Amino acid sequence: MSIALFHFHVTQIKRSAGQSAVAAAAYRAGEKLHSEYYGEDSDYTRKGGVICSEILLPSHAPPEYAARETLWNAVEKAECGKKAQLAYSFDIALQNEFSMDENIGLARQFLSDNFVSRGMVADFAVHQPDKEDGGISNPHFHVMCPIRPIEPNGRWGNKQWREYVLDEHGERVLDEAGNYVFNAVPTTDWGKPETLEAWRRAWAEMCNAKFAEKGLDCHIDHRSFARQGVEQIPTQHEGPTVRAMEAKGIRTDKGDLNRFIRKINALLREAKEKIAALIGWLKDVKAELAKPQPPMLNDLLALHCSIRNKGAYSNKAKNANLQRYAEAFSFLQSKNLYTVDDLENTLHAMQDKIDALKKSASAKQSRIKELDGLLRMVDYYKSGKPAADKLKSIRFEKSRQKYKSEHDNELRTFYMAERKLKPHFKDGKLPIAAWRKERAQLEQEYRDIQTELSPFHADAKKLWAIHYNIYEVQHEQERQNAAARQKKQEIEH
After folding, report:
1. Which residues lie across from 40 on neighbouring strands?
2. pTM over 0.85
3. How far apart are CA 105 and CA 99, in angstroms?
4. Are residues 218 and 359 in the same domain?
5. What is the CATH number of the domain that holds 133?
6. Within this chain, do residues 227 and 317 fall inside the same structural domain, yes or no?
7. 130 near 144, Cβ under 8 Å?
């Protein structure tokens, strides 16, 4: 039984990190949304790869929250704190073994059974990035859920309640300042580790049930490799017969397999060593970032990686962040992009080029469709012309009517084709050869455009991802600067 892809990651969207729930929702859904809290628009309508997006509401939620902009502005308005936690953000992998319709249905069912049933609002978007370098596709879906619950009356409830500490007489305990001592108790279990564990298990079980339904010999495990006790790929037991044959220089299937497994394990060990070296290099990068210098893309990406690693749950997640950082840095270098302006200008120029190519491709498709219609009319005209000519030669009305009745469909098709082709006759002839030649040329030009578009799409996708990471870092820097200015003003006054 083979092991399929499993990824189920959750973070929090919070103001303390300079984040906006509206901006995050716009990015995930590929939409343009206005944030009333920040007074700015987040436009990701040019972002590709968004297959569908939908908001699932519990029965007691206001129906207007089905509108994405209304929902997340309401969340932002309900949170007054400068460090407020706004939403849970889930990133969940879909399965390449399922069709996209099956994946979407599975995601919707999972959210309904596990999130909406608990009273949670679930705003989800399904993404399917293009395959890169001949690898497998990475379909996944993002889910955003407000942390603050909705009460049965449709109003936002409290995230937590106070549980006062009592002494041996049942009286509330006071602290040194004369305030009652209390513990903050969450009003929901949504943020508990055991709840996340249950969700991960439920998603794995649903996918495995689907594998079984489709008769596929594979499964996923929600547990980490460490919890599964998997450190490397085990080799296959060879037995005395296989070992004897291998000792004589006779290659066997099991021997070949074990040689391949050992090679893979060696590569894994090498990868771990490289990652360790990369971590050491990152420390040097952090030291360099501490020096005053203009904002460069490399610096901003390193800072983004550092911020993400602060909230990472495991070393595996941290290593993955480091890998993504290294890949993004290498990609920017290959494109000679070093500043934020470089990135912005390149993105706009690239998008203009993509739009122009798409417009040209669309025009060619329209003309091909028009030519296909004309050539189809030519076929109708040729097949029906003998019948039309025969009808003209019949003088007696009774015979004419009988002939028309017998060849009704053929004649109708001919007269329709004749009407549509009439404007195109020149000297009694139709430019059929010219049409076919033009169509063949347009087909080739359309294929050439698609070939030209492919690398633009791949580069634009990577650049937009980097652009969003830079956007998050800049927001965090602006927040820190604003907090520093406010603190300075408070000290001065």
Report:
1. 35
2. no
3. 10
4. no
5. 3.30.930.30
6. no
7. no
Domain shared by 223 and 302, yes or no: no
Query: pLDDT tens digits for 160-213?
Result: 777 777 878 787 877 888 787 777 778 888 988 899 999 999 999 999 999 888
Q: H-helix or E-strand containing 122? A: strand 122-127
- On whether the CB atoms of residues 165 and 182 are closer than 8 A, the answer is yes
| CA gyration radius, the chain | 32
Nearest to 15 by CA among 467, 469, 480, 465: 480
Q: How many residues does the chain have?
A: 493
**Position 179 in a domain:** no
* Residue pLDDT, tens place only, 235-282: 554 544 665 677 778 888 777 777 887 787 778 778 877 887 888 888
Q: Are the CB atoms for 105 and 12 separated by under 8 Å?
A: no
Whether residue 369 sits in one domain with residue 220: no
Q: How many domains does the chain have?
A: 2
Scanning the structure block, which residue is given the tokens 């003003």? 489
Residues 6 or more apart whose CB falls under 8 angstroms from that of 94 comprise 103, 106, 107, 126, 139, 140, 141
For residue 390, the enclosing domain spans 293-493
Q: Is residue 142 part of a domain?
A: yes
Rounded (to 5) percent helix, strand, coil in the chain: 60, 15, 25
Sole residue written with tokens 């996708």: 461
Domain boundary among 231, 251, 278: 231
